[in-house]
Amino acid sequence: MTSGAPQPIRFGGRAREAGLAGAERSNRWLRSPGEPMRARRPRLAEAESRFSRESRRRSAGRRSERRDRCGHVGLRRPRHLLQRQLRGRRGGRRRAGPQVAATEALQGVPAAVPRGHRPHRLHFQVQLEEAAKEVADEVTRPRPSGEEVLQDIQVMLRSDASPANIRSLKSDMMSHLVKIPGIIIAASGVRAKATRISIQCRSCRSTLTNIAMRPGLEGYALPRKCNSDQAGRPKCPLDPYFIMPDKCKCVDFQTLKLQELPDAVPHGEMPRHMQLYCDRYLCDKVVPGNRVTIMGIYSIKKFGLTSSRGRDRVGVGIRSSYIRVLGIQVDTDGSGRSFAGAVTPQEEEEFRRLATLPNVYEVISKSIAPSIFGGTDMKKAIACLLFGGSRKRLPDGLTRRGDINLLMLGDPGTAKSQLLKFVEKCSPIGVYTSGKGSSAAGLTASVMRDPSSRNFIMEGGAMVLADGGVVCIDEFDKMREDDRVAIHEAMEQQTISIAKAGITTTLNSRCSVLAAANSVFGRWDETKGEDNIDFMPTILSRFDMIFIVKDEHNEERDVMLAKHVITLHVSALTQTQAVEGEIDLTKLKKFIAYCRARCGPRLSAEAAEKLKNRYVIMRSGARQHERDSDRRSSIPITVRQLEAIVRIAEALSKMKLQPFATEADVEEALRLFQVSTLDAALSGTLSGVEGFTSQEDQEMLSRIEKQLKRRFAIGSQVSEHSIIQDFTKQKYPEHAVHKVLQLMLRRGEIQHRLQRKVLYRLK
Question: What's the pTM?
Answer without folding.
Answer: 0.62
